[in-house]
């Protein structure tokens, strides 16, 4: 569990650092520290007038957190589907979930 949590944290930092413009990991960590209020200068949640910090906190961080939440949700749903059916090879087509999702998307 500890290795998985460390891997998620490292990959989240890399996800925030790499984009259309690559931002150094030191800048990412500093901006997240500013946003968390760890430096003592700012109110927690504010990043001041630093443009790179605004890009990190306002654009890239929410996208990364959403990706982690979606991945965790899909993992839980997959585990529940396999547990309910007692079938290790269960997939969404078994209950017709894929056709319902397609109808909802249309």
Notes on the protein architecture:
Helix 1 packs across helix 3 (51-85) and helix 2 crosses helix 3 (51-85). The model has no long low-confidence stretch (mean pLDDT 84). The protein has helices at 2-17, 25-36, 51-85, 97-105. It contains four helices and no strands. The longest helix has 35 residues, at 51-85. The termini are far apart. By secondary structure, it is an all-alpha fold. It has one domain (2-105). The chain is elongated, with a radius of gyration of 19 Å.
What's the layout of helices and strands?
Blueprint: H1 2-17, H2 25-36, H3 51-85, H4 97-105
The N- to C-terminal Cα distance equals: 39 Å
- Poorly predicted runs of 5 or more residues: none
Query: What's the β-strand tally?
Result: 0
Helix content: 55-70%
- What is the strand content? under 5%
Mean pLDDT, all residues: 84
Pattern of helices and strands: HHHH
Question: What does the radius of gyration come to?
Answer: 19 Å
> Helix/strand/pairing class, anyone?
mainly alpha
Q: Please describe the biggest sheet, giving its number of strands, its sense, and whether it closes into a barrel.
A: none
Number of domains: 1
Task: Choose one word for the global shape.
Answer: elongated
Helical element count? 4
């Amino acid at each position: 569990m500890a290795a998985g949590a460390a891997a998620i944290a490292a990959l989240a930092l890399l996800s925030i650092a790499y984009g259309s413009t690559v931002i150094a990991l030191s800048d990412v960590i500093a901006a997240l520290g500013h946003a968390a209020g760890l430096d003592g200068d700012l109110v927690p949640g504010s990043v001041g007038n630093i443009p790179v910090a605004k890009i990190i906190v306002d654009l890239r961080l929410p996208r990364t957190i959403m990706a982690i939440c979606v991945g965790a949700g899909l993992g839980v749903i997959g585990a529940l589907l396999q547990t309910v059916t007692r079938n290790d090879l269960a997939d969404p087509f078994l209950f017709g979930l894929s056709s319902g999702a397609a109808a909802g998307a249309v």
